C-alpha cells in the first residue's frame, strides 16, 4: 500500500485514482506475489534449488518496484515491464526444465 497507493484507490498525491491505474496496480502486485512466494518457499511445481529461487526473486522485486524510485534513471513502468518479461522467461525455463527431467516414479522395471 505504501509503494502503490492505487491499491487504496488513491493516486500518489492523495486524490482519488482512476480505475485503470487501480487495475494495473492490482495486476502487478498479484503477478509479483506468486514468484515472491515461490522464491521464499523454494517450491514452484517442484522443489527449487538456489539459482531458480533467485531467478524468481528478481522479477518479483521488479514488479514490486515503488513508484518514484527510479533505477538507473528508468521509469517505473519500464522496470515493471522488465519484471513481467523476466518472469515469463523464468517460468518458461522452469517449465522446460521440468519437462526435460525424467520421471522417477514408475520407471523401475519389474523383474519376473
Structure description:
This protein is mainly alpha-helical and 112 residues long. The chain contains three helices and no strands. It has helices at residues 19-41, 50-63, 76-100. α1 crosses α3 (76-100) and α2 packs antiparallel against α3. It is elongated. It starts with 18 loop residues before the first helix and ends in a 12-residue tail after the last helix. The relative contact order is 0.12.
Please state the oligomeric state of the protein chains shown.
Answer: single chain
Q: How large a portion of the residues is in β-strands, by DSSP E?
A: under 5%
Compute the CA-based radius of gyration. Answer: 19 Å
Order of helices and strands: HHH
- Mean pLDDT comes to 80
The major beta sheet can be summarized as: none
* Coarse shape: elongated
Content-based structural category:
mainly alpha
Instruction: Write down how many β-strands occur, each being a DSSP E stretch of 2 or more residues.
Output: 0
Query: Helix coverage percent of residues?
Result: 55-70%
Number of contiguous helices: 3
Distance between the termini: 64 Å
Contiguous runs where pLDDT drops below 50 for at least 5 residues: none
How do you describe this structure in short?
With 112 residues, this protein is mainly alpha-helical.
Amino acid at each position: 500500500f505504501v509503494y502503490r497507493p492505487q491499491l487504496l484507490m488513491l493516486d500518489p498525491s492523495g486524490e482519488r485514482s482512476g480505475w485503470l491505474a487501480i487495475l494495473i496496480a492490482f495486476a502487478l502486485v498479484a503477478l509479483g506475489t506468486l514468484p515472491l512466494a515461490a522464491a521464499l518457499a523454494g517450491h514452484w511445481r517442484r522443489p527449487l534449488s538456489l539459482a531458480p529461487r533467485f531467478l524468481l526473486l528478481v522479477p518479483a522485486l521488479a514488479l514490486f518496484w515503488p513508484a518514484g524510485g527510479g533505477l538507473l534513471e528508468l521509469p517505473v513502468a519500464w522496470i515493471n515491464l522488465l519484471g513481467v518479461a523476466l518472469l515469463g522467461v523464468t517460468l518458461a525455463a522452469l517449465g522446460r526444465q521440468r519437462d526435460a527431467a525424467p520421471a522417477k516414479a514408475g520407471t523401475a522395471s519389474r523383474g519376473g
